[in-house]
Amino acid sequence: MDRDEQAIRSLISTWMEATAAGDLPRVLELMADDVVFLGPGRPPMRGRKDYAAAAKAIQGRVEGAADIQEIRVFGDWAYCWNQLTVTIHPAGGGAPNRRSGPVLSILRKQPDRRWVMFRDANMVSPANGK
Question: What is the pTM of this model?
Answer without folding.
Answer: 0.91
